[in-house]
Structure formats: C-alpha cells, structure tokens
Amino acid sequence: MSIVLSASVVRVRDGLPLSASTDYEQSVGVQECRKYFKSLSKKLGQLPDRCTLKTGQYNINFISSLGVSYMMLCTENYPNVLAFSFLDELQREFISTYNMMKTNTAIRPYCFIEFDNFIQRTKQRYNNPRSLSTKINLSDMQTEIKLRPPYQVSMYELGSANGFTSSFSVECKSASKISSAHQRLEPVTLSGIVAFILSLLCGALNLIRGFHAIESLLQNEGEDFSYVIAFFLGTAACLYQCYLLIYCTGWRNVKSFLTFGLICLCNMYLYELRNLWQLFFHVTVGVFVTLQIWLRQPQGKSPDYNV
C-alpha cells in the first residue's frame, strides 16, 4: 500500500523543527526513519533544494526554500510526482501563513505546531489519489521532475553506514562546505541595509581617524604608532562585516563573531582617544551587524508558482 506516513517542517540553518504531523506510525522501520529525519535536518544547508533518501521500505523526500525545508516520509512505492506535489502544497501554505521573520527568529521547537492541522488534511487527500486526481494538475510537477529529478542522498552523506563513519562521507562533507560558499543568501531586509550603511560609516570614521593619527605621528615623534594600527584594523573589521553580510562563505557565523571581537578589542585600545558615546556607537553597530549576518542565511531555490 502506497501512502504518506508523516511530514515535518524544519528550519534549514540549524535543523530546528517548526511543525510536524503528530500521528507517527510506531513500527520499527518508521522509528528508524525518524533517526534519518534528524540526521538530514542537520545537513539541509549542505544538500540541494530537492532530494530523496531511500531507506528500503520507505522514502524520505524533502524540498527547501527561503530557509525552510519541508520533509515527508512515505512508502517506497509512493509516486514521486505525488510526493513532491504534496511537499509543494505544504510549502505554499506555510509561506502564505507565516512570514520569514517569524521563522528566522523562532527559538522553541514546534512553535508552529498548529500547522499540523493543514498537514493532516493534505495527507488525507494525498492518501486517497482517486479524489485527489480531480482536484490538482500533476502535469507541471511531472515535467519538472523529469527535467530536474531529485538528488538521491546516500547513507554515506548522512555520515554513517552500517554503524561506522566512512572516509567518503568526510569527503562529501568537505565538498558540501566548498559548494556552500557559492549559495545565494536570503533577500536583504531593510534592517540589513541599515546595518550595511552603519558598518560602512564606522569603517569610514576609523579610516579618517587613522589618517589623522598618521599626521599627528609625523608632526610629533612621541605619538604611539599602535593607535594607527588599531584604527586601520577597526576599518578592516567593519568592511569585512559588510562582506559577510553580502556574501555566503564557509564558517560565516564564526567569522562574524570573531570580527566583532576584533572591533571590541580595537575600541578598548582606543579608549583614551574616544568618548563613551563614540565607543558605544561603534560597539552597538558591531552587535547589530553581527546579528544581521546571523539572521541572513543561505536560501534554497525560490518557489515557482507560474505567477
């Protein structure tokens, strides 16, 4: 019997479950697949936007878009076109119900559990293909799957096979990190634009003060050259924050945190040359830009609804 067993909605950047169907079947095979769900959730940012994992009797299909992934578990003989049409419906409804800011700032797991009501209704429809075929047009999805079939995720890419970690999985992980540097980021928000401008402003202020420090150093031999270095390091840190805000790179969040740390160190060293308001402004801008870098995450392929 070919049926949809369960579905869940997961945030791509950290695998946080946002919603899920609440009627899991309790068979051993299904319980084992739930472990694969968790493993996949941690690697969504490294995988293409449309994938299938075959686990024997069951298939796990998922699509990712705008920082959210929609996953489903079905029997191995469930038609691909119905599976991805089901996920597409979940995606449309979720995007139209919840805005991106809510999903990006969610902290608690399953904070959109009420979406389960829609998952249950849709699952019932897709488990009854006779009534379903008269309500939806599958030809577009069938054509899209033929032109761009789902990527087949292997057990090796989950990091383990037959109980041990393989060297191939390590290679896949490294390759995924390299390819992630070429991913597109989510659309920039108004707060992101403000952060970019403020970071440029702080960099420009540091640069101007650095040139003034050089002039003072040339006129007075007793001046400390380390102040010049601190101003130019502050400039470089602000400009690098702008770069991280715009482009997707490996270890992007870690780099943003380290860059913010450098900004704080530079301002601590320049304490004697700046008043408290100036120090507060530079550090606050650094915090704001770092937060925007963390919020602007890589996105999947944007949905195309033939609009």
UniProtKB/TrEMBL annotation:
May be involved in vesicle transport between the ER and the Golgi complex. PROSITE patterns: LONGIN. Pfam families: Longin, SEC22a_C. This is SEC22 homolog A, vesicle trafficking protein. SUPFAM superfamilies: SNARE-like. The keyword Transmembrane applies. GO terms for biological process: endoplasmic reticulum to Golgi vesicle-mediated transport; protein transport. It comes from Monodelphis domestica. Residues 8-119 form the Longin domain.
